[in-house]
C-alpha cells in the first residue's frame, strides 16, 4: 500500500507541479524590489526569517516610491549533499545554470512587480544571484541591466555581477578559513569582532546584520539609487518572463521532491543526516575524487554554517556500525582542527535495544570524518579519517535586528522585536487610541534589546486624549479656563485631582486647548538592554497634560531623555492655563543611565504674572535590589499604597509629596541635594534609618506615625512641620549636625491665647509677657509645654510652633532645635524627653521682634523650653528670649519665657498636699486645687494677715519657696514654688481672705457693669482743611456716666493728653500733631477709647468716630531731587505739594553751583521750575541747594532746610 501511494505521489508531482498561477500585478515603473537569496542548508523558514530581518530595517517606501522586500528560495536537496555538489560546480567550474536557478527564475516571474530589482545574495546565494543576473540582465524576457543590480554578503564568489557592492568579514571562518584556501574569492572588506555565541561568523542575520546592519542598509540604498526605470518592460507583461521548463527539468523536480520527501520524513535517514553532516564531505570526495583536498575543503566549509541547525543527536537513536575506511600505513596524519565556533560534543552511546534494531535493519552508524593530508608543505594526497565528533545543536532562535532610520509610525497596540534600533535622527511615533475600551490605549513595545541613538526618538507627543477630553480635562474650550491634569495638577484646575497610577503609569494624557492633545501612553518591556541616548517623550500640546512612559528593562544605559511634560499656556484668542506634568516609571535591574527624566508642568505669562502647573511623577525602580530613586517630582498615592522598598533615595532637587493614609516601609531613606518631602495626613512610615542631607527638607503633617531607629539631619537640612501642628517624633537616636535644624519657627497661632487685645499695639505673650501686653496673657505649662505661640494682631505673623521629641537613646544637637515666633509674635514650645543629650548647638523658643510700619507694634514674649534628661553633656545655648526693639525715644523689650532643665533620674513629684494656719483658733485649713494649682484660705474677721505662719506638707524629696513655718504677709496673693528632686517646678498661688465684720450691714451688690460710650467726635466740627504739625485736635467723648478714668485714649494711633471729666458724662482729650505721625488725607481720623469705672470694669475699645473732613499733614516738605529739563531750566521735586504763595519767584531761595537762578515758579504740584541765566553743559551735575525759611506745604508745615541734591543731567 505504501509503495502505491509513493508511485501516485510521483505521478502527481510530474504532471501537476508546473501548473503555475502567474501574478496579475503589472510591472510598475514606480517602486523598488529587493530579493534575498539564501545560502546552503537553509530551509524556507530560515530564508523567510532572513528576509524579514532585512525588511524590518526599511520603511515601506524609498525615495517616495513603494519598496518591496521578498526572497527567492535556494532549497536544500538530499539533506545538503545536492547543494554541496552545486557549490563545488559553481565555485570551481563556473556552472551558470542548474535546477534551482531555473526554479528561482520561475519564482521571480511571479513575484517581481517593479522594473527596478536588486538581488541580495548570502553565501552560496551569491552564485545564484550572479547567475540570475547573467541570465536576465539585458537578456530576452529579462530586465535591462540599468534596472537590475546585485549586492553580496559573505560571498564565496570572485565577482559581484553588474559591478555591485559586497560585504565580507575577515573573521568569517567559512569564507576565509576554508573556501579562500582553495578558490579565488573577493577579498574581505570589513572586520567584524566576534563574541561568544557568534559561531563561525558566517550567519546573515546573527552576525552580518547584527553588527554591520547600518553598513548593509547603506550599501543597499546606494545600490538602489543606481537603478533606473526603462522603456523596455511594459506594465501588462511580467517583469521577468518565466523560463521554458524542459522534460529533464520536470524529471529533476520529481526526483528531488521524492528524495527530499523520503529523507525529511524518515527518522533513520534523519539520524544519518544529523550525526553525519560532516560525512557529506567524504561522500562528495569519493564522487569527485580527482579534485581531492580542494573539493573536500570547499564542501566542508560551505556546510559548516549549517551544522548548528541540525537536530540534537542525543535525542535521536544512533546506529553504532563502523563503515570507516582502514587507516593507511606509514602516513603522516594532520587533522584539521574543529574550532570553538563549531561547537562539538560527544554523542551518548546507543542502548542495547538500539543496537539490536540497528543490526536488524543493517543501517551503518555515521562517523564524522576529518580530512587528512599526506606529505609536507600541503602536497600529496588526501584521505578521510573517521573520528567520532558530534555537533552540539544550538536551539536558541537567532535574534532579528530591526533598524528604524527614517520616520515611522506605529498604531496603538503591541509590537514584538528582537533587537530594535532607532537611529539616523528617525522618529518612531506611537499613536494612541482614546476610543479604545482597553485600559491601555497606547503602544507597547516588547524587545530583547532596544537602542535609541543620539538624535533619534520615540515619540507619543500629543497622542493622548483630544482637546477638552480625558479624566483630567476641563471641557470649556472657547473661554479662559484651566488646562488639563494627569500626573500633575493644572494651574487653577477645579477638579483638584490627578488620575492613574504613579508606579504603573499607563494612561493617556488629557487634552487642553483646541486642536491640542494630551501626551500618549508608552509601554516598553526590554528583556536585556535598553540604551537611550536619544529622546523618549510623551509631551502634551498647549494646556494639555503630559502622557505616560512605563519602562521595564534588565539593563538601563545611555545619557538620553525621558520626558512627559505638560503643554504651555494657551493664549491664542483666549487663555487656557498650562497642562500638568505626566508620569514616568522606569524599572531596571542594573543601570548606568546618566540622562534626564522630567515631567514638568507647563508655564506661561497669564495676566500680570508667570504661572506654572504642577509637575507630574517620575520614579526609577531598581528591581534587583528593590530600591526606589526619585530625582524629579513624585507623589506617593493612596491607590498605589502600601509601598515597600529596601532603600529609598530622593536626590537632585527632587520634590516629593504624599497623599493622605499612605503606608511606606523601607530599610532606610536618604534625602540629599536640595530635595524635599512633605508627608500626608495619617501617613505611616516604617523606616529604621532616615537621613536628610545636603540642603534637603522633610515636612511633617502632624498626624503621621513614624517608626524609626535613627534620624540624621546633615548638610544644612531641615525637619519642619505644617502650621498649627505639633512636630512629634519618638525614636531612639536623633543626630543634628552643624547647620541643620528641627524647626517649628513661625508655625504657631496667627492670634492665639496670648495675642494682644484688639487694636492694641502690644506684642504677643506665651511663656513671657509681650511688650505692653497685660500681665495675665501668659499661658501653658512650663515643665511640659506643648502649646503654640501666639501671633500679634498685625499682618499674618505667627507665633512659634510646638516640638515634642522623645529620644530613648541619644539626642545629639550640634545644630538647632527651634520654635521661634515671627514679628510681634511669641515663641512656641520645645518639650524634650531624652536619655542622653549632648552637642553644642542651640535650643530656642524666642519671641519675634518689633514690627515697624505705619505704626509700631511691640515685640513678642519668649516661649517655653523644657528638657527632661538622664545624662546631659550639652554645652550649647538654651533660650526663650523676649525680643527688643526701638520704640519712640528708647529701646523696649518683651519678657523672657521659661527654660526648665529637669533631671529625669530624680523624682518629678512636686505637690502641696496640705496648707494650714494651725496657730489660729479654730485652725484654718486651705483648699488645694491641683487642677489650677491654687490654694484658698478664709481667716476670721480681725485676723492680722501680715504675720501668719503657714503649716505646709509637700511631696517627699521636694522643696518649697518661700519656706514653710516662716512668717508671711498674705495681704496679697503669695506664690509658693515647689521644686521636685529632678528640678522641675510647680507654682501654687495662695490667696487669704478675711471674713467680713459680722456687725456691719450687708454690702451692696458688686458692680460688674463696664462704662458705656455712645459717641466720639473731633472738635470743632465740621472742619475743612489740614491740621499741621503742632496743631491740637480735641476729642470729645460721650459716656453714660461721670467719674470714669481713662485707660486708653488714642487719636490717629497716638496717645492723647489732658483727659478731662466734664462732670456731665462727657470727657475731652487733646491730640497734638507731631512730626512723623500718620498723614490722614481722606476719611475720618481714627480714635480708640477704653474707660474704667471705680469697680475696675473696662469697656471694649470704642472706635466709632462721627465723620469729619479734617486732614492731618504730619510731615514737612523736603527736597527730593532736581533734574535738567532744558539747558536753562531745572525741575526741583519736593516730597509733597507746595503752597505756591510761599514761593519767591525771584529764585533767590535756591542756589545752583556755578550758575545764577533768575526765577522760580511752581507750575506742577510739588515741582518748582528754576530758570538759569547761564546754560548747563552736557554732563554737568552741579549741586542744587534749598535754603528758604518761607516754603510751606498746603497745611502750613515749613519745609526742612537747608537741603541739597545732586542735579540729574540727561542732556545729550
TrEMBL record:
Family annotation (InterPro entries): Cu-Rt/internalin_Ig-like (IPR014755)
Keyword Signal recorded: yes
Keyword annotations of the record: Signal
Record keyword Signal present: yes
Signal peptide as annotated in the record: 1-23
Residue span of region Disordered: 319-368
Name of the protein this chain belongs to: DUF5018 domain-containing protein
Native organism taxonomy: Bacteria, Candidatus Nomuraibacteriota
